[in-house]
Fold this protein.
Amino acid sequence: MLLLLQVLANGALLGGLYALMALGLALVWGVLNIVNLAHGAFIMLGAYVCYYLFTLAHMDPFAALPVAMLLLFCLGYALQRGVLNLIIRAPMFNTLLITFGFEVVITFLAQIVFSADFRAINPDYAGANVTLTGVTVPLVRLAAFAVALGLTAALSLLLNRTRVGRAIRACAQDLVAARLHGVEPRHIYALTFGLGAALAGAAGGLYGIVSQINPYIGGALTAKSFAICIIGGLENPFGVVVGGLFLGIVESLTSVYVGATYADVASFGILVLVLIVRPTGLLGRTT
Amino acid sequence: MTPLLEVHHLTKFFEGLAAVSDISFDVGTGEILGLIGPNGAGKTTVVSLISGTLMPNDGELMFRQRPIGGLSPFQRARLGIGRTFQIMRPFPGLSVLDNVAVGALFGAGSERRGLARARGEAAHWLQFVGLEHRAQQRADELGGPDRKRLELAKALAMRPRLLLLDEVMAGLTNAEVNDVVALIRRVRDSGVSILVIEHVMHAIKSLSDRLLVLHHGQKIAEGAPDHVLSDPRVVEAYLGRRRT
Amino acid sequence: MKRLAAWGAAAVAAMALALVPCIGSPTLVQFGISTLLLATLAQAWNIIGGFAGYASFGNSVFYGLGSYGTAIAMLRMGWPFGVGLALGAALAVVFAVAIGMPVLRLRGHYFAIATLALAEVMIAIVSNLDIAGRNIGLVLPLLRGDTMFYELSLGLLVLTTLTVLWLSGSRLGFGLIAIRESEDAAAVVGVNTTAYKVCAFALAAFFSALAGGIHAYWITFIDPASAFDISLNVKMIIMAVFGGPGSILGPVIGALLLASISELLATEVSTAASLFFGFIIVIAVVFMPRGLADVARRLPQLRWRYFGDNVRTHRL
């Protein structure tokens, strides 16, 4: 019983981080209808930014998160404004290819600059645990979970309570009408993509604290993020939270009770099932 | 004379709202039946239920005395039910000729037709609707009235026995409307039964053998055009209750 | 007349390619085998992605099934290569039909993701199967003589291309194009969309599996990650799209061209091949989204405006 609680706790903490990872992808997908195959690469970059700020500038990794977010935001903005805006009205499949192109280039450059060695961000407090009712919770993971949920809530607030958020939602719903109301879509689109990249960067920084990184982690993380978006549904940001928690817990349970090598079977198997049975996701509306 | 299409107690709900409620009527061979009613009366829903795009919650459909309720859209198309869409759906990247050729290639009784023959038939239908001069243009380059002609040619190339026309005259000038009316008459004369949804009153009145009026998903009148159009319930449906 | 000339050129090219093992170095022949198999994958993808418009990101599944089917038949059952190939192909086709029915109901992004997820699931499942050698993989019997594999690969490519040629003039092919252009309109006009899509998927699976089987026997070693290599998916898609999706020779030319240039760069600037691919994708998708085939078709009147127009119609 205690084992079950521990496994569930691990899964939930993992799930929170997963949710943050998928959040950026969901935002860009929902608003711009772009499925960003380079999303995992952004996460990877965020992780490396935090890593180098930690090892070279001795910055606390949590404090380095905003820096990573800012840098990734700029990158995302530039890519959208410079390249993606050029093909946004082409068949969706073209954006898949182009973002894949980004992924290839970014991964390649990362491997040249950062080398392919595994790295990890290990602050002094990395080993600290807190024990609640017999369940051991690593402090860093708890903090990461809190940051993840905090950013999710912040995004929700941004989208619903600010002018910029309203402009973004307007563009998502009706581009022509948005233009008529003075919204400049080129800028808003770039802003949205930048936001998505920033969120990915934050997730990357947190990921670097709880796990090892190298230039090639992008692909699998993109795939996981898809799975979460689909499982949770794209209707509202909390779908991503649900999807992330669900996936985290399933992976945790599968790893312990079935076998570590089956964790991937479980996640992707569920993804396929959800796509076949309920493509709009657990929280989505069936039209 | 046995009717071509029999509709019995057709009902369709959308999220609890009855779009179509207990509708029954027939379409005879070689007949033009006009379907009218205010916006939102359920006319397009009826057509979608007949063509198979939508499945009814209740009711029966018989085509040539055979039940077709369980058939998918393409199966009904093969049996001889053709339709046009209100919001037109051409094959955008294909030429006008090839658009119609698809209809010829897959419509009723088409198993033996090859591509070359289908293109030949397509050319014939383009001439019939007056679009032969645009045969090689891309379908998405066509303007409004030409798109409607293309929709019609595509449906005709399927060799339907029953043609369902959904507002083919919307947005046309008077002269264009008269052209379309003449075209539809020629189609009927070639042996096709037609169910027409239309808002252009003078056109549908002169075209139809009989009229059917829908309001809030229910049939409120049926019969000869003059008779139906002077029915007080029909007038009320369109214009509202008279304040005396 | 122009078409006849094009076909004549293609036939001559095919015969020239067949002669490569006689005059080329062993490295060239090896490069040739890989490229011809990739071209087959691109052409097979063309059937489901180019003609039917369903961009599958998971055809590597069929390639892998072909590899494993062949390997298992030869290793565990002791059957000859030909039977192994047939088994692999049958496996892939059955899988395509079984999984195709539910998955082909999805459209756009969802279909792409579903196929990608299938590819990932397959890797994970096969890694846990004993008959497939789990994570360690399988070692096939060795057959010396790259020439045989080269001619076999060339033959497969020719077969696949001839199938696509047949498709482009057939009822099935026309129906697939109609589905790509407007699926709902196609259904209402009498196209059995479900059957046609599954058929296209099965055809793509068939040829992809054969390519996988040949590759497995040639390379003599397969494991889940390499047999179901996910990166193959994007390679085949880029080659097909760069060459011209929905055309007959486009994917072949795209594959040959991209592979050649990538190989050239690889020898000059080692790993820059990936970088090159990345840039090519971006440039090609932005400036010539309909591929080389479309550029070739317009060659007499081609102007710089063509590329600019592509951007103008698709930009925000």
The two ends of chain B are 45 Å apart (CA to CA). Chain B has a mean pLDDT of 87. The CA atoms of residues 57 and 149 of chain B lie 33 Å apart.
